[in-house]
Amino acid sequence: MKIIIVYGTNSSSTRVASEAMQEVWSRAGNTVVLRSAHDVQPEELTAFDLVTFGSCTWELITPKRHFEGQLQQHFIEFKNRLAGRQFPGRRFAIFGLGDSSYTNFCIAANHLEALVKQIGGTQVGQTLRVDSFFFDQDANEKKIRAWAKGLLTAVSAK
Q1: What DSSP assignment string belongs to 64-132?
Q2: What is the bridge-based pairing of β-strands 128-131 and 91-98?
Q3: Which domain covers residue 74, as residue numbers?
Q4: Structural domain tally of the chain?
Q5: Which has the closest alpha carbon to 106: 121, 139, 128, 91?
Q6: Cβ pair 18, 63 in contact under 8 A
Q7: How buried is 101 (Cβ within 10 angstroms: 0-12 exposed, 13-18 middle, 19+ buried)?
Q8: pTM value?
Q9: C-alpha distances out from residue 69 to 2, 17, 59, 154, Å
């Protein structure tokens, strides 16, 4: 299976989480491409059997307002590039990183779920939400690897 992981990160936590998934899926014999949302064009998604979207949750600050609970900036730009595109039947998996001490824990994952619906994709598996990634990186990487293995099993069975 060909899989792409498209991620948005500020502190590299979402990239490190993506690398853990990439390792699990590659070891299982899949071709896995890891790309920053900054570098992906919408048409590239059609070359993959599974598209995985992941973003940290962050606060967008503009001169007039603060917007807590947003997608990472590169993912916002990627989402804008997806406007008007449809991917019917394309399978998507979603994960988000956040901090439960904030008002909107991992709300970026909710934005990604809505995006998949908006572009006509089909979400497979449960959304993964990771709390405070770097505060317990070992435990969080185990959680991510377990999710990745479970997702692969579910997708392969279909």
Answers
A1: S-EEEEEE-HHHHHHHHHHTT---TT-EEEEEEEE-TTSSSTTHHHHHHHHHHHHTT-EE-SPPEEEES
A2: parallel
A3: 2-157
A4: 1
A5: 128
A6: no
A7: exposed
A8: 0.93
A9: 31, 19, 6, 30
Distance, CA of 59 to CA of 73 (rounded, Å): 9
Q: What are phi and psi of 95, to 5 degrees?
A: -145, 155
Write out the two tokens for 124.
Answer: 């497979």
Q: Give the tokens for residue 107.
A: 């709300």
SS3 label, residue 33: strand
Range with lowest mean pLDDT among 5-9, 44-48, 55-59, 87-91: 55-59
| 138 CB neighbour count, 10 Å cutoff | 7
Nearest CA among 36, 114, 103 for reference residue 72: 36
CATH number of 22's domain: 3.40.50.360
pLDDT in tens, 98-156: 988 888 889 999 999 999 999 999 999 999 999 998 889 899 999 999 999 999 988 88
Q: What is the CA radius of gyration of the chain?
A: 15
Which tokens go with 9? 């990160």
Q: What is the mean pLDDT of residues 80-105?
A: 93
Q: Which position has the token pair 């990239």? A: 15
